[in-house]
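SEQUENCE WITH STRUCTURE:
===
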Amino acid sequence: MRKRSLFWYLVLAGALALSAFNCGDDDEDGQDVVTDMGTDIPDEVTPDVTPDVTPDVTPDVTPDTPTDPVEPFNPTETEPNDDLDTADEVEVGDTIRGQIGEPFTDPYYGLFPDRDYFLLTAEAGTVIQLTLDEEETAITPYIMVYGPMDKQVIDRRLPVSTPGGTRQIFLPLDGEYLLRVDDYTNLLYLGGDQQTPSPVGGDSYTYVLSITSVTPSPIDQTLPMDVSNTSLAANNGVLVYKLALTAGDYLAVDVDGLDIGSDLDPALLLMNGDMSDLLAINDDEWLDAGWYDPYLRYMATATGTAYLVLDYWDLEGDDSKHDIDAWLVDDLYTEQEPTLGVAWDWPYADLSWPLEVTSGAAAPVTGTIGEYIVSSDDYIMLDFDYYGIGELSEGDTVEITVTPTAVGTAAVQPWVGMGVAVDDEEDGPQFYTVWEAIYGPDGVARLEATAIMDGAYYVMVGDYRNYTARVLADVVGSDEMTYEVQAVESTREVTDIELPLVWEEADLSQPGEVDWFFFETPAGTDDTLLVRGSSTQFVLYFYLFAMTGTDTDLVGQILDGGENYLLVPIEEEVPLQLAIWNYGEWPVGTAAYALDIQTMISPERPTTPAATEGTTDSFGDDEDNAVNVTGTNAIYHGNLNGTGVTFDPDVFEVALTEGQLLIATTFSTTGGSDDDADTILLLDGAAIEETIGNDDYGDAVFSQVSYIVPPGGAGDYFVTVRPYCSTSACWYGAYGLYLQVFGD
């Protein structure tokens, strides 16, 4: 009955596969966390894990007849503890007895293994040691460690190959960490391993998990540091190196596996002098050194001691030989690869290169656009360079230029962007690319970028030709293709306007140039603000911001240029700022635009109406017998009929005047049952030269079209509802049509 996108099935399959094999998702490169370094690590203290009170295990009454001792089962684990919401709370020093139960069957998604979840609260700098004893060898247990839960800094899988095996893990932040015990045998089965005839698990498959605290002994090192280890520390032991840094030092640390095909997968962490603050963290470098070797960078903000921690993910085996190199970078004006890191997740250390924002002529940093990386036959990863420019306050404006250096007859065609890293209260750590521009006629990429919120900002540089030539053979870039990037403080110029503003014409002559407009909505209005932008080139972007107190909130955007609109509901008087910027002067020429801002009549969209509301159309509503629409908020109930691919379309006639906005939306009148039609909407009329159409709108099988009547375009317009058809059949059924007309 329905069209269903293959994409959603792939997403579902991928989610199940990741749930079964969470064994490599540790590529969360991100942002340095800058805090002051304190004193040296305090004296080593081994926690007292002896209970304060020794429990009285002597029975009050001695039975007359001896009986076999009854061993308590699962003294700590409390089933069900199969997810985060039902996790058992545990502490350092606890010994947990648990079981791997039978896999359960979900009616929609199939088999799921039993997993035991525990929440452990710990302080920053704690090293815990996990010991797992199996009582039944039919299972192959391992431990997952995530956390802390509000930051998600670490993600480790710790296999335990033999009963009594121990693993260590470093906890870098204060907070609550999640421990999860899995049976790897079940995951292999669920992943399709044909060698496993059936999943295992049951009441007899038990384990004992002990959690203790250990204190590593820091190893003194001087920079530059070059340490070669022939193997991992025993029991996956955490290694700690003690370094001395001076404010302004730019530290680089690289870990490389020495065996060909090594599965070495460590993480690098940098802690302050008393192990209380995480300064930087990096898990995977991605470029140059492979998928798993980390590469950490950090600019010291204070003089003192720092601790470099080397922790491991899931490796057990002999291919663990590795080098640890640490050094201070001397030349901060020549970018050194890799520079691909961005603050995707706080507080992951990024691999960005420092770029100073100056108040005058800036000393540029020289960079390169490197070769692309091939990760499969049909996927490539392009080289981008990232530069950290530090903290900006809302309203700060930076002018960024990227000047290519010609190589023979070829030169870089630069693309430049600026983004911000924030720790969003609802969505967690996020990175937003806010402004971007491509090169102009002189080959230079320029960007007037204004901070729209407080935060840590980054500049990104790429080669525009790589965007337009994704075929592997046509992708460009090499170490010889160089550029210079610089950032200078600038001043944002804002133009005050009053509403209504009717088709004000302006232009943006430079790529990356931004026009700012400030205006206030009428007090006490409940109407809708209509912002329309018209350009002959698809290079202008429109951002509308609401200025509420000290915050700047994005309330709407037009991202494709051309003629488009924003509709913003107005509930109270609020100051607004509209930014219009020239993404790229392409083709060469002035980027002219016209701007129209006014308030419109705003009918409320009704909920799904009952069958008695509105007007029910009849079979045969073609253009010669169209339903005549009146009013600004009309609802119609229809039914698409036909045989095979021969169908009867339903047509609705709407009379529109200059400047009005029409939005037509189909929806379900049956509660989303199989009796719904799969609609397509078409719009024709007085000033429309080519039919406007839409198939699926949103996440359903319904449709939406919209149109603004241009100057001189008043007249009759026709909304056509027809079914979606394959080569042999159409999807008939009931539908609702909601017609909105904005404007007088």
Summary: The two ends are 41 Å apart (CA to CA). The first strand starts at residue 88 and ends at 90.
